Amino acid sequence: MSIAAAPQAPVRSPDRAPETTQTRLTAVPAPLSAPMAPRLPFVVLVSMLLIGGVVGLLVFNTSMQQSAFQEQRLQEQATTLAAREQALDGELKKMEDPHKIAAEAKKLGMVVPQNAAMLQVPDAKVVGEAAPADRSATPPLHPKVAKPYSVLVAERKAAEAAAAKERAAEEAKKKRAQETTSQQQTEEQQRTETGEAR
């Protein structure tokens, strides 16, 4: 506390001579310091904003990485499915090939009819005269045309993808079997150790 002197007016009595003035000491209050309470909410607010920003960035980064992995997986799946579609399209074109159909029909003993009769359903009338078919009316088959290169490439890619998938499935099956075996051995070892401890 600081002490300061406060001047007072001299007291004069009528029959006395003037005296020197006396000073009285009084207490002066201490200066007020800035309170800590108003700063605390500001510090808490800034801290919460920083923590929220860091957590938000981490969550955003994690979600972006997950979506990138999912996109890559879906892209690989789309590529595999596109190759499979091309292979199936090639097989379908192969089955729709007129030479293949004619060859299969010839193997089954089918021949082209010379005279065909048609049945008109509403009138229930037969138009034309039917004659039995013989092999002389069936034209010879032309030699088969080679497949286009793109179809061959698509079939090869589909076969490679299927083989890779089968290999991966076999490796996963072997790995699961090894893990199961090691887990069983570990459990048996633990049972043996607990049996010895008793």
Automatic annotation (TrEMBL):
<feature type="region of interest" description="Disordered">
    <location>
        <begin position="162"/>
        <end position="198"/>
    </location>
</feature>
<keyword id="KW-0131">Cell cycle</keyword>
<feature type="transmembrane region" description="Helical">
    <location>
        <begin position="40"/>
        <end position="60"/>
    </location>
</feature>
<feature type="compositionally biased region" description="Basic and acidic residues">
    <location>
        <begin position="188"/>
        <end position="198"/>
    </location>
</feature>
<feature type="region of interest" description="Disordered">
    <location>
        <begin position="1"/>
        <end position="22"/>
    </location>
</feature>
<keyword id="KW-0812">Transmembrane</keyword>
<keyword id="KW-1133">Transmembrane helix</keyword>
<keyword id="KW-0132">Cell division</keyword>
<feature type="compositionally biased region" description="Basic and acidic residues">
    <location>
        <begin position="162"/>
        <end position="173"/>
    </location>
</feature>
<dbReference type="GO" id="GO:0051301">
    <property type="term" value="P:cell division"/>
</dbReference>
<protein>
    <submittedName>
        <fullName>Cell division protein FtsB</fullName>
    </submittedName>
</protein>
<keyword id="KW-0472">Membrane</keyword>
